[in-house]
Design a protein that fits this description.
about 525 residues; alpha/beta; Double Stranded RNA Binding Domain; 8-stranded parallel beta barrel; 17 helices
Length: about 525
Amino acid sequence: MAKKIEFYDTTLRDGTQAEDFNLSVEDKIRVALKLDEFGIDYIEGGWPGANPKDARFFREIRDYTLKHAKLAAFGSTHHPRKNPEEDENLAALIEARCPVITIFGKSWDIHVKEALRTTLERNLEIIGNSVSYLKPHCEKLFYDAEHFFDGFKANPDYAIATLKKAKEAGADCLVLCDTNGGTLPHEIVEIIREVKKRVGKGTKLGIHAHNDTECAVANSLMAVLEGVIQVQGTINGFGERCGNANLCSIIPNLILKMGYEAEVAKNLHRLTEVSRYVCEIANLPHPRYLPYVGRSAFAHKGGVHVSAVMRHPRTYEHIEPELVGNTRRVLVSDLSGRSNIVYKAQQFGIKLSPDDPMVAKIVEEVKKREAEGYQFEAAEASLELLMYRLIGEPKQYFELLGYRVFDMQDPDEGRPLVEATVMVRVPPGVGEVEHTAATGNGPVNALDNAIRKALERFYPQLREMTLEDYKVRVLPGTPGTGAMVRVLIFSRDQEDRWGTVGVSQDILEASCRALVDSLTYKLFKDRHKKEEG
């Protein structure tokens, strides 16, 4: 019988400590929902006592119901010169009202003396008091032993004493942290074996590795082989300095290579989608050379490799790329994509068999769009509309005939004054032409307001819809202001949220394409629900 493993994601907290990796509260909610959908067991939402953004996240996430994951609030043990009931950090953890609380404490004697500026005995009291005080306020309490491996090397007896104190106070899992990321795999094995001997059988252990020696994934796997049952990490390895253990490598290694069971195993074919989604939300390029999920992970180029792969893919592939939602790419002649398209089509309610000629047509169009700069991982509404158009069901409810945007300075207010004028025809081709104008806070907002104003007479349900977020990314290629840009728009109504994408050298044109898709998708899904009802 395969052993069960738990995955604890800390992208929303540890991941955001990476350079250039920033998430708004709305972004964090989107990522949390995606991770839950994927099957992650625990999602660390942030440190509610550290900043207002995280406190707001924990308030707003209560409006959503997670299907599988349990949300964790993160914080530290109480202040050395305070009691638990007086500590604002512990109060914020309780106020977050999460089923899981994770707190970290000092394991390394140098940190106790120099960082906390207290005695070794007082630190043990702090750990025990913090755990026992918080335990009644959550379903599970995890204790992160910060700098544990460095602490063990320096003073093994004291490092073990901190674990014992947390266990005695009621911690459900003791998480061994390689906070500086300097421990090597053979050391991980030796130290965990000693921990199991000295802390006692039946102790639930976790691993939290950083990647400063490029060993975070290996250290996590070795820890699991030694009996650790909870693995902490981040999507794509985002994290401070050189990053955290990369769950996008750890998860398939444990499930496909080592035979472990986890909830995410049911959705492993969505791993690449999740990896790219997080990058898109953070407005960062997806690293193409990532194992398993990178665009180059199953790419083959030239000569012997291509010849062999065309005969039998296993000659140069360690797994089938479809297992993790990726695709094989033969760079001289792209042969992949069919299975992904069939899967997504079924998800969208389009019945296509793998040998249907339409599949090849869709694959070709998607590849063409990707070459132009489109990405559909966070813009599935645009992908769905594209598929329907290609199979001959255009899902077109209006036609944007033209638009103009005037951007000028308001002399009285000292700020930009933007007006957009649009012409639309409803229905397309033969219908009535509506010509109207509207103002906005910027050119995209003005254009959005003008299009809605023109359409609401025909489609009043558009009033229910709001533009939730707007992201622009300059694509590699032409340098400077002449570069191609990709615009990603997130929209929502009372029931759903969806993403759409547009690409152009003209930022306004790219925005317009994403806006038109967003409005069209709202009308399409409303009609679809009405027909089903």
